Amino acid sequence: MLGHALYMKTIHGGKAKNDKIDSYKIASLLKGGNFPLAYTYPKEMRATRDLLRRRTGVVRHGASLKSHVVNTDSQYNLPAQLLNLKNISARESLRHHYDDVVVQRTTELDMVLLNFYAKELAKVEYFIEKQAKQHHGAYLYIIRSFPGIGQILGLTILYETGQINTFI
């Protein structure tokens, strides 16, 4: 049996810890039917789940870059612009919006990184999608049939829950 370490720690807590005390507490949990079982995630899906989690970190960094670009106006006491950074013409106008060449270069660096992230994330999302169809294509189809669940949320639900049978 594989016990969930965090739940076991929460259940028996206590300051004094040694093998004798721990084994007694584990035996008590088993005997009383309160032993918190851990779920062993399927080995073939772990790498894809980790890639999906890594994607989330990259998306968060992209959001940080976008907020830096948008907040540049307030940083230099300029009136706020209504920018849609997905629009190419808006990004081009942003390039010449600032008088200082250093600020222009800083903004350009953020925009270059955002463009790179967008291209690479599209490739990663396509790759994860292919993997998901191989692992559990039917489950993915069912998950996406719910209104409001798109590509990324569907993939996240699929890979974070693992085997759906564990919830039945």
What are the salient characteristics of this protein?
mainly alpha; elongated
Q: What is the percentage of strand-forming residues?
A: under 5%
Low-pLDDT runs of 5+ residues are: none
User: What sort of overall outline do the alpha carbons produce when their principal axes are compared?
Assistant: elongated
Helix content: over 70%
| Mean pLDDT figure | 85
How many domains? The number is 2
- Number of distinct beta strands: 0
Assembly level:
single chain
Q: Can you write the helix and strand succession as a string?
A: HHHHHH
Largest sheet report = none
**Count, helices:** 6
The whole-angstrom Rg is 24 Å
Distance between the termini: 19 Å
- Computed structural class: mainly alpha
Describe this structure in words.
The chain folds into two domains: 1-38, no CATH class; 43-167. With 168 residues, it is mostly helical. It is elongated. Helix 3 (43-75) runs antiparallel to helix 5 (101-144) and helix 3 crosses helix 6 (151-161). The chain has six helices and no strands. The model has no long low-confidence stretch (mean pLDDT 85). 7% of the residues are buried.
Question: What's the short version?
Answer:
With 168 residues, the protein is mainly alpha-helical. It has helices at residues 5-12, 19-32, 43-75, 88-95, 101-144, 151-161.
